[in-house]
């Protein structure tokens, strides 16, 4: 199968790429390699997939030096002309769109980036899927779409009309846009609401990375909502396993009487991919402290605008439809992350 994966210089895209190549798929990766966070982590991921920094040139398709089934192109999703050219020439079977401007807090200060990458860019992906007869588009949504929802665990059949950040609004918009294309053009689309993903090669703007770095450097960590937070942390391998099962199983429409917000008479579906086991922020910090062998200096702060105090995924659809539920424990996941961190940044534990 030939798959386009966008965001392969990014955290989840890099791991998904490895999985798909391992099982024998042919993959073309796209990423604009923006500098939202330490770009060396992105170059590091590219390097590990056989794409060297010195070879990169905007719009040039590069053959991986170590994976015969992998080519990479540095491209902006907003660049409709070049994106269309790529779809026309490469004839993909399926698309997995992970490229996006991520991050809740950054969306308060840089709203434009979210409209460009997540709305304009996503529209271009949809248009290409329409014109080049893509068999399935899977795309990243986010647990942040649950916004002001109070009932937990969060279910995909809940109404999600109350996002509290532009990031969340852009992800909810993607689901609405996808539904429209599934309905109008019969394109199977599946949205994946990821719940706080972590693991090796993780994002430098996220809690695990920030905490690990600060603790190792003897600096203090910011603990929001005075520690009264919980997150359904999901290990990246668990996420990737779920994403692949989703890619392999395009949705079919349901009967009108069975419709709920997660499905449709059109070939449209939305899944939660979360651990289904929320962890208290203070327990999360304690697990990192234990692994590193050092107690964190804590800077207790109020809840940040745009943040929700708690996330908890109902994954019953994932279990029912795809026979799958994430299961890596937080201790195991933190262990693997810290081992990667000290190796990549050449620091001592
Ligand atoms: N990591 C999480 O906990 C989490 C949670 C919920 C949702 N998500 C979503 O999952 C997806 C992957 O997240 P990630 O953690 O790997 O983030 P990431 O930032 O590491 O990866 C995204 C990649 O997309 C690229 N990109 C951004 N805008 C682009 C554009 N306009 N054109 C081309 N490339 C562009 C970036 O350079 C980056 O490498 C994103 O859509 C994100 O919103 C992630």
Task: Report what the structure shows.
The protein is an alpha/beta fold and 349 residues long. The protein has a single domain (2-199, 234-275, 313-327), classed as Rossmann fold (3-Layer(aba) Sandwich). It is 39% helix and 17% strand. The protein contains eleven helices and 14 strands. The chain has helices at residues 11-22, 39-48, 80-90, 106-109, 111-131, 166-185, 207-217, 236-248, 281-292, 316-322, 330-344, and strands at 2-6, 26-31, 61-63, 70-74, 94-97, 136-142, 189-194, 197-198, 220-223, 230-231, 234-235, 268-273, 279-280, 297-300. The strands form four sheets. The chain has an eight-stranded mixed β-sheet with strand order 3-4-2-1-5-6-7-12, with helices on both faces. It has a two-stranded parallel ribbon with strand order 8-11. Strands 9-14 form a two-stranded parallel sheet. Helix 3 (80-90) runs parallel beside helix 5 (111-131). The chain is globular, with a radius of gyration of 19 Å. The relative contact order is 0.13. The model has no long low-confidence stretch (mean pLDDT 97). Bound molecules: nicotinamide-adenine-dinucleotide. The site of nicotinamide-adenine-dinucleotide (NAD) has 28 residues, from helix 1, strand 2, helix 5 and strand 6.
């Amino acid at each position: 199968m030939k798959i386009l994966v966008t965001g392969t210089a990014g955290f989840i895209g890099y791991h998904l790429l490895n999985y798909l190549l391992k099982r024998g798929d042919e993959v073309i990766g796209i990423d604009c390699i923006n500098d939202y966070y330490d770009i060396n982590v992105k170059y590091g991921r590219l390097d590990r997939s056989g794409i060297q920094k010195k070879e990169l040139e905007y719009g040039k398709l590069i053959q991986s030096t170590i994976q015969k089934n992998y080519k990479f192109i540095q491209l902006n999703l907003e660049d409709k002309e070049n994106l269309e050219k790529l779809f026309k020439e490469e004839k993909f079977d399926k698309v997995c769109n992970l490229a996006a401007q991520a991050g809740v807090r950054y969306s308060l200060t840089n709203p434009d980036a979210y409209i460009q990458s997540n709305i304009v860019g996503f529209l271009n992906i949809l248009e290409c899927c329409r014109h080049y007869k893509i068999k399935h588009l899977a795309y990243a949504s986010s647990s942040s779409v649950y916004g002001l929802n109070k009932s937990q665990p969060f279910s995909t059949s809940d109404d999600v009309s109350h996002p509290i950040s532009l990031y969340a609004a852009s992800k909810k918009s993607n689901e609405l846009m996808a539904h429209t294309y599934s309905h109008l053009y019969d394109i199977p689309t599946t949205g994946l609401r990821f719940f706080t993903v972590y693991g090796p090669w993780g994002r430098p703007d996220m809690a695990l990375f920030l905490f690990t770095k600060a603790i190792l450097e003897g600096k203090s960590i910011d603990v929001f909502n005075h520690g009264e937070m919980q997150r359904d942390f999901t290990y990246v391998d668990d996420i990737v396993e779920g994403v692949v099962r989703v890619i392999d199983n395009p949705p079919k429409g349901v009967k009108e009487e069975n419709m709920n917000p997660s499905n449709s008479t059109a070939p449209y579906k939305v899944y939660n991919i979360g651990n289904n086991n929320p962890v208290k922020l203070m327990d999360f910090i304690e697990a990192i402290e234990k692994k590193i062998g050092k107690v964190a200096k804590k800077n207790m702060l109020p809840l940040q605008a745009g943040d929700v105090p708690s996330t908890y995924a109902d994954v019953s659809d994932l279990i029912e439809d795809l026979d799958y539920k994430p299961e890596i424990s937080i201790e195991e996941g933190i262990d693997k992350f810290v081992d990667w961190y000290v190796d990549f940044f050449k620091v001592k534990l």
